[in-house]
Amino acid sequence: MSVGERLPHESAHLHVSGAAPYADDIPLPANALHGAFGLSSVAHGRIAALDLAAVAAFPGVHAVLTARDIPGENNCAPVIKDDPILADGLVQYAGQTMFLVLADSHDAARRAARKATVRYEKLPAIFDIREALAAESFVAPTRTLVRGEPIERLAAAPQRLKGTMTLGGQDHFYLEGQVAFAVPQEDGGMLVVSSTQHPSEVQHLVAHALGLESHDVTVQCRRMGGGFGGKETQAALIACAAAVAAWRTKRPVKLRLDRDDDMVATGKRHEFIADYDVGFDAEGRILALDVMMASRCGYSMDLSAAVNDRAVCHVDNAYFLEHVRIVSHRCKTNTVSNTAFRGFGGPQGMMVIESVIDEIARSLGRDPIDVRRVNFYGVGPRDTTPYGMTVEDNVMPRIASELEASSAYRERREAVARHNRGNTATKRGLAFTPVKFGISFNATLFNQAGALVHVYTDGSVLVNHGGTEMGQGLYTKVLQVVAETFGLSRENVRASTTDTSKVPNTSATAASAGSDLNGKAAEAAALAVRARMAEVAAQEMSVEVTAIRFAGGKVHGGPREMTFAAVARKAYERRVSLSSSGFYRTPKIHWDRDKLTGRPFFYFAYGAAVAEVEIDVGTGENRLLRVDILHDVGRSLNPAIDLGQIEGGFLQGMGWLTTEELCWNAEGHLITHAPSTYKIPTAREWPADARVSLLDNSNVEDTIHRSKAVGEPPLMLGMSVFFALRDAVAACGSGRESPRLRAPATPEALLDAIDSLRGTTNAIPARKVPA
Amino acid sequence: MASPPEEKQRPARFLLDGHVVEAADASPTTTLLQYLRGPLGRCGTKEGCAEGDCGACTVVVGEPHGEGMRYRAVNSCIRFVPTLDGKEVVTVESLRAPDGTLHPVQQALVEAHASQCGFCTPGFVMSLFALWLEREAVTREAAVEALSGNLCRCTGYRPILDAAMRMHGLGPSTHWPKGTEHDARRRAQVPVDPQPVRTPGYFAPRTIAALAQAYLEAPDSLLLAGGTDVGLWVTKQLRDLPPILYLGDVAELDRIVEKDGALEIGAAASLTDGYGAIVARYPMLAELAERFGSPPVRNSGTLCGNVANGSPIGDSMPVLIALGSEVVLRRGEQERVLPMEALYLGYRKSAMQPGEFVRAVRVPLPRADRHVATYKISKRRDQDISAVCAAFAFTLRGGNVEEARIAYGGMAATPKRAAAAEDALRGKPWSATSVRAAIEALARDFAPIDDMRASAAYRQRMAGALLERFHAQTTGASA
């Protein structure tokens, strides 16, 4: 009655009224201070002299903090302790935080921060992936996954080709920048309100920075103005700095990064390169694949090992790779430490195989959709992934058939060819790309969640869980699950702010697993309370407890019924607890991180897209004419919210691969650090002709109401646009050569690809801009 | 500019939810966003970028117009508070009725599932509210254009566009009725004061003569118009500005008239109004007008400000130069007229004397024998800064080029004519051969730079490609 309905986002009425408070909107005590970071201006160097006198003397400044002011650990990194909150003698990227100014106003703090005089002893810096590979500069050990006999099979393959791929990074561009405030509490405690996807990790890192224990620190987050992975680990820097400042000054401190500082100082999606060597047969079936992937991790580890592991686990995408070797390098560079971003390495891994398949198809003169299809995982045979997991829920062949028909792929392929024969100024391209994305954190231990459900004596219900709301509709879905469990409507249930003092030891809201984990935990808590209420109701109505049903706001006992509120009241009178915690751990999963084998994922989410584009051959300008999407969310908890995730994910993925270009200059400074220069899609980019559907499916695994995760997978539907552009570029040549198209496919990149195809110039590598 | 002691100090006053706000505590450069979120405690309006590029801060500003009011969306993050004198400010908090009933714009967004994280939503609400006031129905294209200044990172925009097309069908708002009598009522509430706004470091004269005199006396003042660039000097560069002379309160400057064969656009006329008048005469410039900034930027920014600022990547100048536009410069009581291209001496260096300002731009009226076009290349179609902006105004006779005026933005340190390319075409047949010769000449005209928008090589090539596009469009040939 609640689950499966198209209910609005629980805060929709507040969003549209400006009445949904975000961290920066919460009133602070009158004596609060505002912080701003001082950022390094060199990419690698020793801080020889840091003169902060003019900063401290700036009007309105209360204090200036450096690494020495941190009472505990100077670290905000999640895995190994290699991200200082404030640089201590050494800076490793341009934009690294060196000091923190505290002033009466945000404006004064920002102005003062620019008054520092810093002398650096510059050290050699590495910026790009090939340089790092040559220098063997890595943040984590190289990992290799081998299955079968790839080298032997490659040598024996009837057809073989080699290629390379360049993929840009991506800024999260959450509309709400990073922000936290910290308020000292009694007896040495600290309250931190943080815009974070991971309150527990912020809690731990703040405690370590302050030399406190976890129970001394409370972290809260009601909502974020977007996260996309950018507030999974990156929020800790801001929260820790605010907490250190509050601890030092004994005053509330707010730290909100200006957009430019946010983009310069916090991590992004990893850039990747890949070199590949593939052997295949006349149909395009891959017989053996050898891939070298390398990513730009930046100066520290952050989550890069896990991101790259997930990239390795998604090189197969939807395809059976019997004989395969994947070598994954995690390059250390003097750039901001790259981090989680929706898809978490998965998109980059998939781009490799999609490029490979596209090239195979062109070399054979076959339609790429046909080559994709012959390589799909089978149902029964050909169904184990390179990392040894059996694909038990393969719906990709079905999705491909349904989408091919509903999108009129074959007819449109003909129409595109006709257009291209008749036009020299514009070319069109069409592409089908699939997505198969593994759901669960690769690291098994994170796949757990807790929740808390209270029923009050008036029958109203409150739920709290460890997940965070960043717009994805997690709170809405959890409310629906709890309401469903009690036979109530959603309005009878309220969700309260995520708070480490309510539900402890939580995982990040990440890996698309928010609803799977927290939905199940909340259901478990609600079921526990419901079981006690059922006992009470059975006694009140003199029926067997097995006869009790919760539905429509009532508790039914055979012919009799009581209101839900009446049962709650009776339970209270009978001194029966109306509150329970709930806990969930994902079953069946296991993962050997060193061997890269196991069953890391509970199940897979699937989808596919068909995109059609047109490019101007003279300028590289282009537009998306139409997109058709069919996506698998299992049995949807809320089709309206799931549709929103699919559409938004698609456009974000398209932005990554088209207009969103991060540029660094020769000194390693990011020069696209604001929306004036970094271009995410606008409303214009959403095509007038978009046909998005949910696959009629149910999860084969026992997930919450048989739904599937939907946060990340749709991002990779955006690949269809890139490959449609590649198809259009290919039409500028014979159609048989593979265009060397780098991502993002900006107009300039498209023109370069056309040039390389026509042999008019050499392929141009990614641009470098002088300082 | 120190105000003489005998001059009466007066802070700005504006109307907000039916009450007059006297902004005595706002500095000359306090932004409306800072003022709303700080002293006024209205945190519904958000900061996403503080440079007018994301739209999270969008509010609607109403000003007396004719008998009623004219409401337009603006970016509050780069709008200085004193410039709101005599206006009405409408924010996202203004729309919901006291009993909680949502405005049709808000209701449409809820019903369309158009908010996810919700942080951009107040800005979308206000852009759509301006559209709701302006129209009785909205097409998809109108919605896309109205929302080009609002970024959303969550939804993919489809539900927001759906809401835009649905909002007028949800009936009237009792809390914010549309119609002339309601506008007249609001207009009566807007504070009116014969005294100009004058506070330490800020003066907003009411007449051209007073403005010219004040600027002559204090030529180091900063002449402020729409503030869509100057705002960033404060929010991004954290510059301390000299005393501000605001020209937006000079009613005589907010005029667009046809005079002596030209369209004269006054210094206070917004880009919206300026381009509206230009496009009415040159319909082929509609696309450039629509791709210039975004509606909130065009509603605040002025055409003369764009011209006077002289950025090498400003999109107005190439076409205005190609058309042979002139600038009317005023200094004290003197006026002189310059061809627009003569204004630009070097990177952000102009021919204006101290105390001199652009009083108006004069755009020649269309001629039947002249072919005009302007094209813009950018990474993203909407609300992006040009890598290259090209403009062409050609007189063709008997298949020959009689007159060729070509100007580019993004190719040099200033907006610039392509003299060599023009020479290569003048008197020649308007043919592919001539175009190729002109493209070769472009290499002598320009030596563009590499930056984050494009490489030098790409820019140079686009300069030629756009000339080819113009040739194709004027001859019906395929490029």
Characterise this structure.
- The complex is a heterodimer of chains A (771) and B (479).
- Chain A is built from 19 helices and 29 strands.
- Chain A is α+β, with helices and mostly antiparallel strands.
- In chain A, the strands form seven sheets. Chain A has an eight-stranded mixed sheet, with helices on both faces. Chain A has a five-stranded mixed sheet with strand order 7-15-14-13-8, with helices on both faces.
- In chain A, α9 (304-312) runs parallel beside α10.
- With 479 residues, chain B is α+β, with helices and mostly antiparallel strands.
- Helix content of chain B is 31%, strand content 22%.
- In chain B, β6 (197-199) and β7 form a beta hairpin.
- In chain B, α2 crosses α5 (158-166) and α14 (419-425) runs antiparallel to α15 (432-445).
- At the A-B interface, α1, α3, α17 and α19 of A face α2, α3, α4, α5 and α16 of B.
Observed structural traits:
heterodimer; A: 771 residues; alpha+beta; eight-stranded mixed sheet; five-stranded mixed sheet; 29 strands; globular; disordered C terminus; B: 479 residues; Ubiquitin-like (UB roll); Uridine Diphospho-n-acetylenolpyruvylglucosamine Reductase, domain 3; Enolase-like, domain 1; 3 domains; five-stranded antiparallel sheet; 22% strand
